[in-house]
Structures are given as C-alpha cells and as structure tokens.
Amino acid sequence: MRIFDLAFEALAAVFTYFQIVLRLAVPLAAVVLVFETYSRLTHPQMSGIAGPGGLPAAPEPPAILVMISLVATIALTAVYLNVVIGWHRFLVRGEAPWATGFKLGGREFRYFYNSIAIGIIALAVVLPCVFVIERLVGGIGAGLLSQALSFAATAAIIAIVLRLSPVLVDVALERKPVGLVQSWKRMAPLAGQIAGVGIIVAVLAMASAGIDRFVVALPIGLFFKAALTATNATAMLFLAGMTTTAAVTLAYLRVMPPPASGKGGNRVVAANE
C-alpha cells in the first residue's frame, strides 16, 4: 500500500463524518477560539502578531485572571479528552457523539497520563537528534535548512506518537491496554503509512505557519490579526487532532482484526476484550 494511504483514509473519515466531527468538537473549538484570540491580544509579541515595529509590553494580568485561565485550561483539557475519546468510539463502535454524556473519571485520567507519557517519549527521542544536527551544522537560522529540520521533527514526533497510541484506543474503548511496548510492536506493519501521516500533518503545520505570516503582513488592525491567526490555529488544532486520532484508530482496526462484528461508521468493531 502507498505511504499516504492511511493519512488520506483518516482525512476522508474526518470529512465523511464531518457532521459528527462538528457535533463533537464545535463547542470546544468556539471556546478555544476565544481564548486564542484573547491570548494573542494580550501577548502580541509572543504570538508574533506585533509586526516588525513591535508594541509596548502588555502589563502582567491580575492574579484572578491567571487563576481563571488555569481553571479554564483544565476544563478545556477535560472536554478535549471527551472529544477525542468520543471520536475513537464512533469510528470503532458507531457510538453517537456524547452518547454517554460528559465524563471525567478513570478512563479520562488514564487517557490523559498515557498521552503525556507518549508525548514525552516522542520529544525525548526527537529533540536530542535536532540538537545534535544543529551542532553539527554550526547553528541554524531561519533559512531553508531550519524549515526542513522543523518539518522533519514534526513528522517524526507525530509518527512516534501514532506508533505508541494503540494503548489510547484501548483506554477509550475501556479495554485492557496493551501497553506502550506492545503498541509499538503491533503497529510495525504500518510503520511506512504512519510516517506518511506524520508527513501530512507536518505539511498542514507548515501551511498554517504560512497563513499566519501572510495575516501578520496584512495592513489590518491588531484585533483582526489576533482573530484571524487564532482561527487558523484553532482550525489546525482540530484538523490535525481529529485526523491523527482517526489515523491511529483506523490503524488499530487493521492490526487488531475483530473476531466478531458490530459496526462503527463503516468500520467493524475491533476487540481484545
């Protein structure tokens, strides 16, 4: 099979079931958009929308706003966990969005800490390689080599995360997780196609960065730059998130064929229960 088959199948799932994706993700996306816009307006230098002339540094927000932001971040994380778990369950079992309502229990906490562990492993593998390459070439500026390295690092991180992510599907389906080592081994037959997903996500990330640069260069007010770049970031977050979640779920169904059936979208139920 071609290297991009899994990536295109995952993208097709997102757009085929776009109404389901919207029902799962739109409420969360709307809140994320508001917070992204606010963050860009209050920290234009950090978000890169201040422009070449820069802006005066924004005053530090009061403690109450910092606390509200922290609580909101925790709440958004909890909702996001429900969204991705719901997307796994729809693709495997055809379960309607929010069928079990909002949950924050053992399943969600297991999904969260396994996600963190997988992310740390991916970064621990890729970042030292990036550091070594930078040292070997004598430092990298903002040129083509830097962009190529960033592209390769993004694709590698996504690929490693996906190789380890079958454990997340098990958790989402409330099955006994196979573990990270077994996840890596079971996804080995699809290693090439998983790399293809990483490449596609890296392309999307570069396209998103290009859109940001275009918006920042426009002769428009700071608010509109903040709103447009926040919209771009939010769209990228959910397109990449839902696509990678679909990719690992579809890969999981391939490497763990079900002994019995049931429908999930146009996918059968995979089982190790």
UniProtKB/TrEMBL annotation:
Coiled coil location: none
The organism's place on the tree of life at top rank: Bacteria
Keyword ATP-binding attached: no
Sequence intervals crossing the membrane: 12-35, 63-90, 111-133, 145-169, 190-211, 231-253
Keyword annotations of the record: Membrane, Transmembrane, Transmembrane helix
Keyword Ligase included in the entry's annotation: no
Annotated protein name in UniProt: Glycerophosphoryl diester phosphodiesterase membrane domain-containing protein
